[in-house]
Amino acid sequence: SCTRLLAELGAEVIKVELPSGDPTRVLVPQRGGVSSVFVQQNRGKRSVCVDFSRPESSDVIRDLVAAADVVVENYGPGVLEKRGLDWDSLRELNPRLIMASISAFGRRNSPLSHKVGFDTIAQAFSGFMHMTGERDRPPQFVGVGFADVSAGVHALTGLAPALYHRERTGKGQWVDIS
Q: Which residues of 95-118 are buried (b: 16+ CB within 10 A; e: fewer)?
């Protein structure tokens, strides 16, 4: 959601996908062999495929980051660190970089930062599912990716002051959204 909004606001967005492609490409409903969810979330973006099992893929990402204003990522814990593509490594490459990390439990200073999660887990942990459905029945999923969309909007909201800060100081920042 964050990068879709950035694209809608006029940013040039390059989405990095695995060779198998974004899993939402094959969801239904489809039109012309393309998922409507994929089209809705990725309109206005360009894509590049990288195979993280190949070491040279990290070099491709580093080349993109060297010229980037903003990086938005939502990989699982340790994925970027293992490849030298985490915040500490990328800011050395591009000190003006602003990076937004979107994860279930935050990247640092969280007792659950080592865990992965997705929308339903966030709804359950937050208590949101407990407020949905019938009073005498089990908690219920809201039915839409509420937590995912909310995290994307919050990431975009965090990027705005980080960009302003960079314009004033020349220094990038890391935005950590859970």
A: eebbbbbbbbbebeeeeeeeeebe
Q: Are 161 and 175 in contact (CB under 8 A)?
A: no
Could you say which of 59, 63, 86, 148 is catalytic? 148
**pLDDT tens by residue, 7-56:** 999 999 999 999 999 999 999 999 988 899 999 999 999 999 999 889 99
Token pair of 99 as six digits: 């990076």
Gap between the Cα atoms of 81 and 114, Å rounded:
12
Burial of 175 from C-beta contacts in 10 A (0-12 / 13-18 / 19+): buried
Distance, CA of 100 to CA of 31 (rounded, Å) = 32
Residue 21's region, left for phi above 0, alpha for psi from -120 to 50, else beta, is left
8 A C-beta contact, residue 41 and residue 17:
no
Q: State yes or no: is 148 an active-site residue.
A: yes
Q: How far apart are CA 177 and CA 153, in angstroms?
A: 10
